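LOG
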Amino acid sequence: MINLLLLSQALIHGNCALFIDTISVAFDIEVKGFKQRSVEKPANEVVVKGPHEAFVENIRVNTSLLRRIVNCEDLVIENIEVGEVTETKCAICYLADITNDDLVAEIKYRINNLSIDSLLSSGQLEQLISDTNSLNVPQVLATERPDKSASYLLNGRVVVLVNGSPYALIMPAVLNDFLSSPDDKNEKPLFANFLKFIRGLATFLTLLLPGLYIAITSFHQELLPTELLFSILASRENVPFPSFVEIFLLEISFELIREAGLRVPSPLGPTIGIVGALVLGQAAVSAGVVSPILVIVVAITGISSFAIPDYSFGLHIRITRFVFIFLGYLCGFLGIALGLFVYLSMMAGTTSFGVPYMTGVSPFEKIKGNTYLLPPIWKREYRATFLRSKKEKKQDNISMKWRN
């Protein structure tokens, strides 16, 4: 029998219905065509050593990019429509012989139980299916690179694609994932681990450097060498504002410059940054509004924030640093220590689809496949244990058999 409801929905979506005399079924044929963006380089994720391909807005092109990399019959792509009005197509991708069934079931349950009129982007879906947390840390990894998505698929994660969005959502995601780059696995362990150390240092500086400066200059001057202390006091002699107001103004100004550089047309973006950083900073120092040493602190903090690979996690760190600036001004090192204790405790209590957010970092113990620093490629035998994948190992103990 012909299902008229399904047939009418297919016609609304632009498909063609084929009826044949004496046959009680109709054929739903997809014949619609439309303009679409071709596969290009990633716009927001720089590729050093890896494929120069990025997802586009067409979900079928995106699934084909994934399937071309993961050329395996166990790759499952399940289509789900979200939104009562838009009926946006979403694709849940996973490897049936590797990915934990409970993880797949949880993600499908959350997506299937969304009662909304419209879904227009993967960013909206990320907010709708993420666990609630007080810190607002990102719990889903978003990427526009098919090679990165395929790598996580092969390790037992789930990738969700949304029609109309050039970003894939990877679940679950832990802290290590937001400080890692897919190019790390294409480099030798010494180089990759050095870059990971730099990113960890950049995260620390972005989060705590302004607060530590305020705490030291306001409460703990004895920690500074005498010459440096005299230099800081001399530079602040003509500044009319306290350190807290001074650094707050500079940090807000830096965020304004960053946002302006993103929103103006591309050819003008570098110009805005140069004018804001050099001209405005030099003018502020010459006018005696801010001290030179504080300009250096804010500049180091801003540069460090650019070294964080994930934009969402970097934004979270940039916002949280204002809390530590206030705590450093209020109580010095004591306020920063208490704030850091509360911050890390709340982060340790956060989960991403049932997985502790700090897995691989805390507790400090050797866990298979979960370490922050990369071992040599011939020692990467195990998948992350927190994923509870069906296949624990992804290569033999002796993978380079040519050496035997």
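LOG (cont.) second protein
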Amino acid sequence: MSPVEFIPIAEQSNLIHEIGKFVLDTATRDFLTLTNEAGELIHVAVNISPQQIRQPEFVRDLESILETNGFAPERLEVEVTEGLLLSNQPNVKEIIGKLHNIGAALSMDDFGTGYSSLSYLLQFPFDALKIDREFVDGITDVELNEALATAVISMAQGLNLKTVAEGVETAEQLEMLKSKGCDLAQAFTSAARWR
């Protein structure tokens, strides 16, 4: 079942908090195995539901999981969507500030598909922008997709942010994004750094 199907159900039933903790625990606990297999220190990126991150105990629970699993916060990247920022809830800025203070990286997921207010990039300590797969999908044969991806990459570089292209499935997409200066490519199940 796709996350697009089960995440809304998990959020509506309030199961998202337990699922989110399980995902964070599993990802950070398995980190050592992943590092050994990769032969290098790697980062782990985890999507966090807006509903989950709004919980006052979120950062405390996260710190507890990291400590229990011996996982350095600097190796964790927390991915949030613009929906979280649009909520205008007062504790969101505080929670994101706490995540930044413990050393976790913060990325804006699906950049360009929501309202994409550039003011969010000034208000919050983002480390990366993730270019939505909607733009990547036609990047090699639709000029507008190429132009939008290029603009996001250029803007991110100007703001000293890392760029991650989502949904990269072909060698042609990979090469084009690499030539534009994109830092990382993410397929459906994996990510690769340019060498």
